[in-house]
């Protein structure tokens, strides 16, 4: 039996070395594992089998082929890595990987166009795969909410901040949960039934976002999850889930699709509320002297 791998990179390297000698079914699983590393954090064995068009027993054989007792032990490598942050390579390491992959020096404009094309493809896929029912439900939740809370940490923070900015142009009370001064708990203290939480998170799923989502569910608030998988921890508790899979180019994941979805959500809500963003604020009526 092959020696069990202790890191994602060791495992991926081992899979790459053994790939040519694998049976057809195991090759399909190998492609899935290497191309969907973040999904492996939360995927069930049935999900992997379905995606690869194989039986669950083939997934078990794949795990055993690389030294694991079964799927759970294989999955633990991905979960442990993402939990510790080891799977998030630093920017310097990613740039070095780009240089190693492209032996001929690339022009800056060539790099830019490659990344832009990937972003365009991601937005096109988002448009084609948009869950219309979930999107309509999300807009209705925001329309009816007494108070809208928004959370997105680390890489998802820009999307949360943008939504906070745009939604503040409505007549809704909007709160960005940014944890300033470590006050996540205090910022969600008033969250209650009748309110809405927009939770934005992708694998490995920020602990702060998961905590706020669980709190919102406990208090009976509606939850809009913007995430990369219907199996993610925040999606399981959500009233409406909007799924976005950002493309990866040069070992970097874009934010273009996430931002596009955020803008679309605001525009749809503004249309519902019949906003006139150019109109000056109403002045209070004068009373007689």
From TrEMBL:
<keyword id="KW-0805">Transcription regulation</keyword>
<keyword id="KW-0324">Glycolysis</keyword>
<keyword id="KW-0804">Transcription</keyword>
<dbReference type="InterPro" id="IPR047640">
    <property type="entry name" value="RpiR-like"/>
</dbReference>
<dbReference type="InterPro" id="IPR035472">
    <property type="entry name" value="RpiR-like_SIS"/>
</dbReference>
<dbReference type="InterPro" id="IPR000281">
    <property type="entry name" value="HTH_RpiR"/>
</dbReference>
<keyword id="KW-0238">DNA-binding</keyword>
<protein>
    <submittedName>
        <fullName>MurR/RpiR family transcriptional regulator</fullName>
    </submittedName>
</protein>
<dbReference type="Pfam" id="PF01418">
    <property type="entry name" value="HTH_6"/>
</dbReference>
<feature type="domain" description="SIS">
    <location>
        <begin position="138"/>
        <end position="280"/>
    </location>
</feature>
<feature type="domain" description="HTH rpiR-type">
    <location>
        <begin position="9"/>
        <end position="85"/>
    </location>
</feature>
<dbReference type="Pfam" id="PF01380">
    <property type="entry name" value="SIS"/>
</dbReference>
<dbReference type="InterPro" id="IPR036388">
    <property type="entry name" value="WH-like_DNA-bd_sf"/>
</dbReference>
<dbReference type="InterPro" id="IPR046348">
    <property type="entry name" value="SIS_dom_sf"/>
</dbReference>
<dbReference type="InterPro" id="IPR009057">
    <property type="entry name" value="Homeodomain-like_sf"/>
</dbReference>
<dbReference type="InterPro" id="IPR001347">
    <property type="entry name" value="SIS_dom"/>
</dbReference>
């Amino acid at each position: 039996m092959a020696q069990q791998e202790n890191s994602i990179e060791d495992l991926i390297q081992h899979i790459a070395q053994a790939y040519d000698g694998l049976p057809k079914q195991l090759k399909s699983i190998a492609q899935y594992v290497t191309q969907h590393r973040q999904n492996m954090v939360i995927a069930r064995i049935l999900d992997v089998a379905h995606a690869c068009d194989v039986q669950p027993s083939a997934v078990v054989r794949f795990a055993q082929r690389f030294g694991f007792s079964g799927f759970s032990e294989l999955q633990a490598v991905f979960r442990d890595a993402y939990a510790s942050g080891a799977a998030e390579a630093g920017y310097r390491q990613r740039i070095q990987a780009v240089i190693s992959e492209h032996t001929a020096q690339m022009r800056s404009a060539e790099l830019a166009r490659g990344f832009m094309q990937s972003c365009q493809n991601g937005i096109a896929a988002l448009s084609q795969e948009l869950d219309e029912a979930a999107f309509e439900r999300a807009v209705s939740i925001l329309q009816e909410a007494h108070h809208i809370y928004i959370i997105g940490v680390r890489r998802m923070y820009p999307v949360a901040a943008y939504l906070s900015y745009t939604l503040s142009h409505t007549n809704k009370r909007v709160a960005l949960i940014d944890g300033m001064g470590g006050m996540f708990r205090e910022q969600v203290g008033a969250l209650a039934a009748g309110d809405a939480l927009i939770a934005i998170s992708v694998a490995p799923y920020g602990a702060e976002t998961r905590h706020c989502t669980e709190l919102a569910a406990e208090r009976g608030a509606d939850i809009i999850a913007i995430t990369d998988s219907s199996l993610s921890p925040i999606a399981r508790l959500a009233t409406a889930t909007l799924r976005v899979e950002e493309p990866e180019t040069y070992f970097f994941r874009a934010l273009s699709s996430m931002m596009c979805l955020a803008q679309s959500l605001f525009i749809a809500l503004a249309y519902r509320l019949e906003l006139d963003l150019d109109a000056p604020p109403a002045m209070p009526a004068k009373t007689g002297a």
